[in-house]
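User: Show me a protein chain along with its predicted structure.
Assistant: Here is one chain, sequence first, then structure tokens.
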Amino acid sequence: MNDHDLTVTRQTFDEVMVPVFSPAAFVPDRGLGSRVWDTQGRDYIDFAGGIAVTALGHAHPELLKVLAEQGGKLWHIGNGYTNEPVLRLAKRLEALTFADRAFFANSGAEANEAALKLARRVAFDRHGVEKDEIISFTQSFHGRTFFTVSVGGQPKYSEGFGPVPQGIVHLPYNDIEAARKAIGAKTCAVIVEPIQGEGGVIPADPAFLKALREACDQHGALLIFDEVQTGVGRSGYFYAYEDTGVTPDILTTAKALGNGFPIGAMLTTEALAAHFKVGVHGTTYGGNPLGAAIAEKVVELISDPKLLEGVRSRSVALKDHLAELNERFGIFKEVRGKGLLIGAELTDAFKGRAKDFVTAAGQHGVIMLMAGPDVVRFVPSLIMPLDDMNEGFARLAKAIEAVVGATADAPAR
């Protein structure tokens, strides 16, 4: 094959890729800070952050430096050896949290897989085979492996793949009574997002999380916080649990941890970690020196109290922009979330049309996300310059105007 045959466009996707995604019409080519340029040279303001991943923006100079330095030393060595970057990363995460043991993987799904397997193993060792029930919540999202998708509370993702693993119960989110009734002697773990991300950006009521903690303690079950999306500064705290008054037994983290380099982690206590003996669980790439070195720098930068204060002030600015848009267009029923994980739920007149707004935003130079069909989601860089935020909202206003105008012009049915 000559180089001429390797010319690619958006059309190439439909010719060479398994069609599990439906990507935008433009092809991003490079990014800097909170701006992205496509292959045609058009620029976009990035409110999506690669789905809450590029928390320090694109091409961050300190991360590029670490990438080059570690890239010239050692990328991968395998799990028959340890390495200095992964040990430093573990020490940093443990110093910042309740945890004193870490397991590194490549993604949030893998971190959740490890957490769920650990919870089952702890219950098996301590109580026997009967205690195997995992409780999660409707509309939750915990990953795309078969186990995590079965535990997740969105049946559309697990249907059509054969029998799902047994012993999984789904309860309504934020329903204290239902949780108290369901958590019992058979429960080995409860897994919960402190803010449901994919499910529509729905924060947990602190009283609900406290009730889960109490019920888990009462019945010898483990409480797992899935902080894949809420973690690493996104909520205005390094991990969202810090602002809930509740400490989990296991915490999972990924997305922003590597700012786009694939890495995830499961954090837990020494006593629980002891149930994962040599050979009980594993990974080939997890904790590789290149990913760990990048993540260590990410953790150092994002755990800075000044940066976290900046997340909270940007949160106010972003909500103010949304309030202005709503005064003008009246399209949002509710704005929810914390820090820079914000969801704006559309009014009934625009129900099911979040995708239309995301598509129009792209046409007007803004990269956006949805959180289900009725919610537009904002997860920009945690250090987004306010000038970029202002420019993004000016462009977004034009996109909303286009959608609202087209709706007004549409013939009545």
